[in-house]
């Protein structure tokens, strides 16, 4: 999705903004642009395509400037083109605006402005904002923007500069994330903290309705009633190295390789002296009041939720429902004050998840967020928040966020199971050390990555395939299939192994790759039968299973072995080679792995 960077300080503005935009590339974009106040005027430079194109077009142009705004656009209104890229000037070029979100009443506003003689130069909704600022300008840019945003319906994070106010950078947010970075003699705005890590780690997260004015040495924030407000200053622990490739060819590979470490950190944050502690989230009294759990999320986070459901049911013996966030609100879920609804979101900004969270709150449920981003909107909206320790996840394809989310789910299930008394002390300790031991095993699976490259060689020329599994393995199949689709563009489908024969088996023909996940001991024989069914129709079988499973090896054309573990926890291991398989297939196909087509890292529209 779109990205915003803004700067006010002493010189170097062009460089700082371009660098910030580059760190936001991972969010997905199709054009970029920059606006600077230079020598008394606003200059806007923008280009469709990669940021390099923008850089080329302004290389050598000298724009001395202390204030500017930049943007990476992911088209919604109007095709990706130079003219539709942000920033957008007002007609008289006194104002420039960058905007994330959607202005829902832009057509009416545009008609009104056209009626007044304004000429528009783009097809975007955003341009109404810069034109309105020109139209309503009263000499005070903060006051003008305050009045303008009252006329906007929809969602926005905006950065605004005015040529007559070279000492003032204005920004505002409504349903779209925006942070202010606090520097020394300089200040910043960004839609995502990773754009600021090089310059500062101290930030204010704006809240809905906030508007702020940044000067070189000060930041003032006002709420929607024009009252000065102080937002809590947050210190971001993420390092710049975590947000850079550190020698890896792609972020996705780096993030897959980081998993043993980040799972360990997530584990250690919650486990002390062999005891799991979530007392900040749920006490015994609170858990007694809960009779139902919902888990709600999108994409990969939803798949982590499916594993969470499995863990809650198996370990804590709780009734759990899992739903995709975009459906949750419309399914009339049976929730009340006795329901705990857990929202899973790496970014903490996904609109569908946020909307579902608001719905659950109106129904008085206890809401808990599992997220990776401190201070994100979802973390602030939920009653309670559990942070994963994945660190910045830059690749569009989510990997380490997923495994840290499932770490949380297993620990949380064990914690609740113990509180409820449905699990013995002995079992509790056994499971806890099983999870601890998983870390080393994840590393072992990663060490085997060379073998996965061979299988990727086979897959890269295929156009379709299947992932199948039973029980927990089916949930892994869903995630593995999503990963393969999003980064390799190979159409795959995930099926419960037993379901394939009820229709879809018609698609199996000679050479169709069928990737089988088979770790659930009580289901192994049935999995072998399912393999035979598709093999008999010509499928090429790639199996992920435990290293000692000779029956599986025998029926497979290619076998990826996992170190032994209790099959309750096998999801930690089986997903790793499948993440690697997607990665290698994508890179062998020459795809831009970290930024696959049509996708955005953080999906901030419903
Ligand atoms: O930031 P979130 O976890 O809320 O994002 C949810 C999905 O958009 C995300 O997991 C998406 O499915 C990933 N691209 C998958 O790799």
Task: Characterize the structure shown.
The protein has 606 residues and is an alpha/beta fold. It has 19 helices and 27 strands. 36% of the residues lie in helices and 23% in strands. Helix 14 runs parallel beside helix 19 (571-588). The protein is globular. The two termini are 12 Å apart. 5-amino-5-deoxy-1-O-phosphono-D-mannitol binds at residues 298-301, 345-347, 350, 353, 396-398, 482, 486, 602-603.
Gap between N and C termini:
12 Å
- Low-confidence residue ranges: none
**Structural class, please?**
alpha/beta
The beta-strand count equals 27
Helix content: 25-40%
Overall mean pLDDT score? Answer: 93
CATH fold descriptor of the largest domain: Glutamine Phosphoribosylpyrophosphate, subunit 1, domain 1
What is the second-level CATH architecture of the largest domain? 4-Layer Sandwich
List the helices and strands and how they pair.
Blueprint: E1 3-8, H1 13-23, E2 31-38, E3 41-48, H2 51-58, E4 67-73, E5 88-89, E6 95-100, H3 106-115, H4 127-136, H5 141-150, E7 156-162, E8 169-174, E9 179-182, E10 187-190, E11 202-205, E12 211-215, E13 218-222, E14 228-229, E15 233-235, H6 251-257, H7 259-270, E16 271-272, E17 275-276, H8 284-289, E18 292-297, H9 299-316, E19 320-324, H10 325-328, E20 339-345, H11 351-362, E21 366-371, H12 377-381, E22 384-387, H13 400-420, H14 425-447, H15 449-459, E23 464-469, H16 472-488, E24 491-496, E25 513-518, H17 524-535, E26 540-546, H18 550-555, E27 558-562, H19 571-588
Parallel strand pairs: 18-19, 18-20, 20-21, 21-22, 23-24, 23-25, 25-26, 26-27
Antiparallel strand pairs: 1-4, 1-10, 2-3, 2-4, 5-6, 6-7, 7-8, 8-12, 9-10, 9-11, 11-15, 12-13, 13-14, 16-17
Helix pairs in contact: 3-4, 4-5, 7-13, 7-14, 9-13, 9-16, 13-14, 14-19, 15-19, 16-19
The structure holds 5-amino-5-deoxy-1-O-phosphono-D-mannitol.
5-amino-5-deoxy-1-O-phosphono-D-mannitol is lined by residues 298-301, 345-347, 350, 353, 396-398, 482, 486, 602-603.
